[in-house]
């Protein structure tokens, strides 16, 4: 199925009786599960096993392609947990072909051959993708809301404590409890993932650095690589992490 969503579409929590492959032909989507949230650019896709609750939001105008796959048609090795996978040029073209087919296609004919080739072309090795922890405490959500509107805000933890109506010590403890990382590490991860839609649109690194609170493009690129394992250009090109 081919679906279009405007920027800001929030999605809703739901699941499907079939397995699902979500791929953005263009635009960037945010996919949230109980495990956390992924920011997914066009060169990657998300796999969901059957009946797995998830929510898909559009961070930019989104042209989404969705494949629903019966359990008895899933190839061997398909993951039992959601994961982000890479999309090869061939897989991209096969997804385009399949979503242009009738929903009720001839499984024994040419369309069926295309579907079988598509399933064989999927590389089930998880692509490198950072999962953003879902914040639940209202004090942390207050900080997140401000950073969503201004990701370049450079306030210290002590200053953020005023926004959250909590002491700096309490705020630091809450970030560690809910995310498993310090506030500084969480903010770096938040900035790197929030930058992905702008990268996908072609925003220059110098402009991204300014928008996200860094004095130089090199400082932003270093933060991005520290979080994502690759440089911004390597990530958009689909490269895997470097050691």
Q: What secondary-structure arrangement, pairings included, does this model have?
A:
Layout lengths: L1 E4 L13 E8 L2 E5 L2 E5 L3 E5 L6 E4 L3 E8 L13 E4 L2 H11 L10 H12 L16 H12 L7 H8 L3 H12 L3 H18 L4 H7 L5 H12 L3 H5 L7
Antiparallel strand pairs: 1-7, 2-5, 2-7, 3-4, 3-6, 5-8
Helix pairs in contact: 1-2, 4-5, 6-8, 7-8
- Protein structure class: alpha+beta
Spell out the helices and strands N to C.
EEEEEEEEHHHHHHHHH
The gyration radius over C-alpha positions equals 19 Å
Arrangement of strands in the largest sheet: 1-7-2-5-8
Strand content: 15-25%
Q: Could you give a short account of the major beta sheet?
A: 5 strands, antiparallel
Choose one word for the global shape: elongated
Average pLDDT value?
88
Low-confidence stretches: none
Number of strands: 8
As a percent range, the share of helical residues equals 25-40%
- How many helices? The count is 9
What is the rounded distance between the termini?
Answer: 38 Å
Could you walk me through the main structural features you see in this protein, from its secondary elements to its overall organization?
This protein has 243 residues and is an alpha+beta fold. It is built from 9 helices and 8 strands. It has helices spanning 89-99, 110-121, 138-149, 157-164, 168-179, 183-200, 205-211, 217-228, 232-236; strands at 2-5, 19-26, 29-33, 36-40, 44-48, 55-58, 62-69, 83-86. A 5-stranded antiparallel beta sheet has the order 1-7-2-5-8, with helices on one face. The protein has a 3-stranded antiparallel beta sheet with strand order 4-3-6, covered by helices on one side.
């Amino acid at each position: 199925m081919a679906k279009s969503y405007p920027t800001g579409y929030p999605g809703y929590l739901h699941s499907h009786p079939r397995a699902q492959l979500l791929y953005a032909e263009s635009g960037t989507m945010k996919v949230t599960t109980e495990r956390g949230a992924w920011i997914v650019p066009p060169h990657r896709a998300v796999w969901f096993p059957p009946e797995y609750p998830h929510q898909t939001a559009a961070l930019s105008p989104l042209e989404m392609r969705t494949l629903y796959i019966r359990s008895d048609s899933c190839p061997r090795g398909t993951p039992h947990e959601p994961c982000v996978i890479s999309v090869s040029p061939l897989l991209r073209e096969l997804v385009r072909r399949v979503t242009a087919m009738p929903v009720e296609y001839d499984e024994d004919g040419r369309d069926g051959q295309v579907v079988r080739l598509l399933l064989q072309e999927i590389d089930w090795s998880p692509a490198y993708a950072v999962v953003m922890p879902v914040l639940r405490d209202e004090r942390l959500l207050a900080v997140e809301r401000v950073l969503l509107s201004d990701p370049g805000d450079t306030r210290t933890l002590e200053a953020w404590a005023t926004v959250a109506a909590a002491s700096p010590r309490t705020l630091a403890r809450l970030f560690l409890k809910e995310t498993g990382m310090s506030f500084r590490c969480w903010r770096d991860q938040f900035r790197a993932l929030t930058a992905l839609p702008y990268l996908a649109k072609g925003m220059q690194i110098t402009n991204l650095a300014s928008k996200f609170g860094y004095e130089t493009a090199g400082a932003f690129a270093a933060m991005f690589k520290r979080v994502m394992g690759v440089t911004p250009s390597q990530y958009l090109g689909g490269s895997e992490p470097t050691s």
